[in-house]
Design a protein that fits this description.
The protein is an alpha+beta fold and 128 residues long. It has one domain. The protein contains two helices and six strands. It has helices spanning 87-102, 117-126, and strands at 11-16, 22-26, 43-47, 65-72, 75-76, 82-84. The model has no long low-confidence stretch (mean pLDDT 88). This is DUF5820 family protein. It holds the Pfam family DUF5820. Residues 42-61 are annotated as: Disordered.
Length: 128
């Protein structure tokens, strides 16, 4: 099922569910809960549920797939959210988003109301 061979350096498949959902993480060697709190691990989610929708609610598009990026459980980079018709397209979209993130082409600072400056400075130094 996995087709994440083209992930850019720093990204890893953290979990892949038999249903097709997947979780990808960025630089777990840096954001390892020693230097930064564990929830600060940048994470891509590939799911059949739109970002922010609770698990109990019925899916609005049961055939659709969604990719979203979080920097913490409550900090989603909403501008990065994207929907796809198939899982194959969603995997390609996740890889493309991972590439943009690693290249520094994702505005993650804009997702914060009260930024963690040290954390964001570290992301800046690792991306782009």
């Amino acid at each position: 099922m996995t087709t994440f061979e083209d992930l850019p350096d720093g990204w890893e498949v953290w979990n892949e569910d038999p249903s097709g959902s997947a979780i990808l993480v960025y630089r777990p060697d840096v954001f390892d809960s020693q230097n930064y709190p564990a929830p600060c691990l940048p994470t891509l989610h590939l799911t059949q549920r739109p970002p922010g929708q609770r698990k109990r609610r019925a899916r609005s598009n049961p055939d659709g797939w969604y990719v979203s990026l979080t920097l913490e459980p409550e900090v989603r980079v909403k501008d990065a959210d994207e929907g796809f018709d198939t899982r194959t397209a969603a995997v390609a979209g996740a890889v493309a988003l991972a590439e943009r993130f690693a290249a520094g082409d994702v505005d993650y600072r804009g997702a914060y109301q009260i930024p963690r400056e040290d954390y964001l400075d570290e992301l800046d130094s690792l991306t782009g």
